[in-house]
Specification:
The complex is a heterodimer of chains A (324) and B (424). By secondary structure, chain A is an alpha/beta fold. Chain A has ten helices and 14 strands. Classes of the chains: A alpha/beta (324), B mainly alpha (424).
Chain lengths: 324, 424
């Protein structure tokens, strides 16, 4: 009996000394990793825009009339007002390699779209440098035209029925295909593999709408620039990016670990955006594009900027809606 | 057991209490009672007052040695982080030919932020503040990583570089700077609170002194009636000394409080305003640089720039005429930059923003920054000067109070002793 009592007492004593010997250490600081996320990035859960309104052929534009000579725009026309101002103001992109981007070495905006805009300026002033390039975000393209902030938008701008309700378009100057960009060896090979993945696209683009309409719908992240998508992929925040192949190729050139995969999710006709109702300017731009297609300028621009996409497919044939 | 041992004790205690009561009703008993009460309350009131005054001195030293330098470090952390962001944006805007000077300015700002972080962490008063500082530290490391990623991509000519820079700047503006601002404002509030405590009257000590005085007055009155003599000189002297101690404490603390108050209005308040002005200047600078990097519609960023400038001028007030003048020149240069931008002359706009000749924004911003920093240093010196002066008034008070009240106890006992001796 007494040995058991001794053992109990010993146990209590040990327990007490144990408590005394290991006092709780003062709380040490612990913080979570600092979050990083591009400004404006957010998950898209609401349908981006109303469904297409079903126009017959969105690509059909106004047929050009006789093309005025540079420096002598017809009085009273939209072009003559631009000529009086002395500069053509064009809304462009600064983050899309090959089409519109800021060369970090020179600080200048360059690319296929930029050169195309300069060709329009050449045909108004006779000088491709009479141009004021203003960066517009993808989702500001319509409002920039409507408010008169810019004369034209040359910015990988897909012609759609929906957009034609608020702005006018030139004829198509380039056909792009929407594809998918994924990490090499990531098991994403087509749109079907995107189920349950996080996919990035720029808010306000047709690409984002098309990803949103996928069934089953992947988790969709909307950002403000395509480079933000690549950045999020490099930081492991998204698994794939889906947009036009030319944009994706431009992104892939900046990161050897990613590649363009899968077939076309849809064809994107690029046109030049013009303020709604400026029919004279639309006709003038279409005339300029006809020149650019036929005099070899288009091929020259393709060779300069897009040769990494493969051999030139040739300039797209213009489509006109034949109303006087 | 307990009952048997307890009863005799209770009886003893009862007996002695009865004896004390009977003794106290006798004159010598009364004299002893008055002497004991007066002497004890003198000593207790003196000791309590001295301790309270000592606490104020310790608090005043803590303001000078800990809380004020800590608030200063937190302010520096905020300003240096913000300066790093402005410098990184400037360096990025200058393109591939990032000059060693611009790089050095960014690195200098980072080093300043790291130093301020070390100072601020060493002075952190609680776990919550240490946690906030750890968050700032983690964010700063992440921020520099993003800036270097931007630079590496920039070197290759990849447009993703600007995406990294925008992400870096966004994390700085939305995570790091608000965190640093919270730390800094909490610190400044603590300094203010500590200053208030230094200048407050020691209430318990004073109450005890007044009680002592009351005991002396009552004791004198009783002695006057019982002994039919004049006022007991010892008690009167003790009363006078106690009054002296009260007047000394109230007067000294009031003098210290007036210095502290001037330190608060001329130092701390100005310091806070100028520190805010410095941050606003950094934010306006980031506005005008980022609007050139973003290169789009500048309506929103112009609104933000002029909002920051208006607040900035309001904060400077009359504290630094040099800074006010430099801000006006900076705004003039900024208008030139915007005109160049709006007329499509982008290179001229960039030159106007980055230029280091006297007419350019870069140079004027540097003047604003330098003059604000000087004014901050000056208001800091003013505040520390007043707090230090307040310390001079307080420094002799604990020991003086203790000595005076011990003296009061002694003269009271010495004065009562002859009256007691008459009965021995």
């Amino acid at each position: 009996m007494s040995t058991r009592a001794m053992a109990v007492l010993l146990g209590i004593a040990l327990g007490m000394t144990g408590c005394g010997a290991s006092p709780t250490p003062p709380a040490s600081v612990s913080v979570a990793p600092a979050p990083v996320r591009p400004a404006g990035a957010q998950e898209i859960t609401d349908p981006p825009k109303a469904a297409d309104t079903g126009c017959v052929d969105p690509e059909a534009s106004l047929r050009p009339g006789p093309q005025p000579t540079p420096g002598a725009m017809p009085p009273g026309s939209t072009m003559s007002r631009i000529q009086e101002r002395g500069r053509l103001i064009v809304g462009v992109d600064q983050n899309t390699f090959m089409f519109g981007y800021r060369d970090p070495a020179s600080g200048q905006l360059e690319g296929f779209d930029i050169d195309l805009a300069r060709e329009i300026a050449r045909r108004i002033f006779g000088d491709p440098n009479r141009i004021d390039l203003q960066v517009v975000e993808a989702n500001q393209r319509e409002s920039a035209l409507q408010s008169g902030q810019v004369d034209l938008v040359v910015r990988t701008y897909s012609i759609t029925c929906e957009r034609k309700q608020t702005v006018d378009f030139s004829t198509t100057y380039y056909y792009a295909n929407q594809k998918i960009l994924a990490r090499k060896g990531s098991k994403i090979h087509s749109a079907a593999d995107l189920s349950g993945k996080r996919v990035c696209a720029v808010s306000g683009t047709t690409s984002l709408n098309r990803v949103f309409d996928l069934n089953p719908r992947p988790t969709l992240i909307g950002v403000t620039a395509w480079t933000d998508c690549l950045l999020m992929m490099q930081q492991g925040q998204v698994d794939a990016i889906s947009t036009d192949d030319v944009v994706l190729k431009g992104l892939a050139r900046q990161d050897p670990g990613v590649d363009v995969v899968g077939g076309s999710l849809g064809i994107e006709p690029y046109g030049i955006g013009v303020k709604k109702g400026s029919d004279d300017l639309v006709r003038f731009v279409n005339g300029a594009l006809d020149d650019i297609r036929s005099d070899g300028t288009w091929e020259r621009l393709y060779d300069r900027w897009l040769s990494s996409l493969g051999p030139s497919p040739g300039p797209p044939q213009p489509k006109y809606r034949d109303t006087p | 057991m307990t009952i048997t041992t307890g009863t005799p004790l209770t009886l003893d205690a009862h007996a002695s209490r009865v004896w004390v009561r009977r003794f106290a009703r006798t004159t010598p008993g009364l004299v002893v009672a008055i002497g004991v009460v007066v002497a004890a309350s003198c000593v207790i009131a003196g000791a309590v007052s001295a301790a309270a005054l000592n606490m104020r001195i310790a608090e005043q030293r803590a303001v000078l040695d800990h809380s004020e330098p800590f608030a200063y470090a937190a302010q520096n952390l905020y300003a240096a982080s913000s300066a790093a962001d402005a410098a990184a944006a400037t360096a990025f805007l200058s393109g591939g030919n990032q000059t060693p000077l611009m790089r050095a300015r960014y690195q200098q700002a980072l080093a300043a932020a790291a130093s301020a972080l070390a100072d601020a962490t060493a002075g952190a008063p609680d776990a919550g503040t240490r946690k906030s500082l750890a968050q700032v530290s983690a964010q700063l490391a992440t921020y520099t990583g993003l800036v270097e990623a931007a630079r590496a991509n920039n070197v290759h000519g990849f447009p993703i570089g600007s995406a990294y820079l925008r992400e870096a700047s966004s994390s700085m503006q939305t995570e790091l700077l608000p965190g640093a601002e919270n730390i800094y404002s909490a610190d400044l509030a603590r300094v203010d609170e500590a200053q208030r405590r230094v200048g407050s009257l020691p209430k318990i000590g004073l109450a005890l002194l007044v009680f002592t005085l009351a005991a002396i007055v009552v004791g004198s009155a009783v002695m006057l009636r019982r002994t039919n003599r004049r006022f007991n000189l010892g008690l009167v002297a003790a009363g006078v000394i106690t009054v002296l101690a009260i007047v000394g404490i109230v007067g000294g603390v009031r003098l210290a409080a007036s210095d502290i108050e001037r330190g608060r209005t001329e130092g701390t308040a100005t310091f806070g305003q100028l520190a805010e002005a410095r941050i606003l200047a950094q934010q306006a600078r980031t506005d005008e640089t980022l609007q050139l990097i973003t290169r789009g519609d500048i309506t929103a960023s112009e609104k933000s720039y002029f909002g920051h400038i208006d607040d900035l001028l309001a904060r400077i007030g009359t504290a630094s005429p040099v800074a006010t003048e430099a801000v006006q020149k900076w705004v003039a240069s900024h208008r030139k930059q915007v005109n160049a931008y709006r007329t499509g002359d982008y290179p001229a706009a960039v030159d106007q923003a980055l230029g280091t000749d006297a007419g350019a924004s870069g140079a004027q911003f540097a003047v604003v920054e330098t003059s604000l920093r000087d004014a901050i240093e000056q208001s800091r010196a003013t505040m520390r000067g007043y707090v230090s002066d307040a310390g001079r008034y307080l420094s002799w008070m604990p020991i003086a109070t203790l000595v005076l009240m011990t003296l009061a106890a002694t003269v009271a006992v010495v004065g009562l002793w002859p009256r007691l001796r008459e009965f021995l």
